[in-house]
Amino acid sequence: MSYVRTFLPWIVFAVFPSDRWQWGALAGLVAAVAVTLQQRRAGAGFDALIIEIGSAVFFAALTGIAFADPDSGVHAYSAALSSATLALIAGGSLLVGKPFTLGIAKRTTPRELWGLKPFVRINTVITGVWTGAFAVTAGALAALAHAGQGHSTGATLVQAAGFVVPMLFTVRYVAAARAKAQGGAR
């Protein structure tokens, strides 16, 4: 559920019709700010809100562009830009040694595990997979946009796969890590 909440602004943006992209960008911005504020009130630290804060910045910029020029060339590439932004945020979190999934995982993991190397390593791997998925998705969406198919059914399927594949990986990888840890604890 944490990942759905984390990516809610992107989901909101994606469900808006293409010809209403400025309203989708604004709705994404409102969702990003709302999720960030709600999570801060619930006690989440900024380390757990890397994607949410990055989302707010992205959607603020996109909203400004979209309302200033609804016919902007940015529109055709907005899906590719959103995935590229997520790749940069996720990759940046790895570069600074704070994988974005670490903050999310801390919400459901006992505090005594947070500093352990396996916990950090698992989240580094998961964040790497998300980063790769976002980068591949951005490339595929850019190619589709360049071919004039940026808002096609194919583009929608690529976007969905860009979230579903790393989410499935995350669920399976965490389950395997837990099973391994429990097997080693016996």
Low-confidence stretches: none
- The tally of helices reads 8
- Tell me the overall shape: globular
Instruction: Give a quick account of the main beta sheet: strands, pairing sense, barrel closure.
Output: none
Number of domains: 1
Q: What's the alpha carbon Rg, rounded to whole Å?
A: 17 Å
Quick check: average pLDDT?
91
- Proportion of beta-strand residues: under 5%
Number of strands: 0
The percent of residues in helical segments reads over 70%
Going by helix content, strand content and strand pairing, the class is: mainly alpha
- Distance between the terminal alpha carbons, to the nearest Å? 30 Å
Give me the strand/helix succession.
HHHHHHHH
Task: Record keyword descriptors for this entry.
186 residues; mainly alpha; 76% helix
What does this structure look like?
There is one protein chain. This protein is mainly alpha-helical. The protein has one domain. It contains 8 helices and no strands. The chain has helices at residues 2-6, 8-15, 21-41, 50-68, 78-95, 100-106, 117-146, 153-185. Helix 2 (8-15) runs antiparallel to helix 3 (21-41), helix 6 (100-106) crosses helix 7 and helix 7 (117-146) packs antiparallel against helix 8.
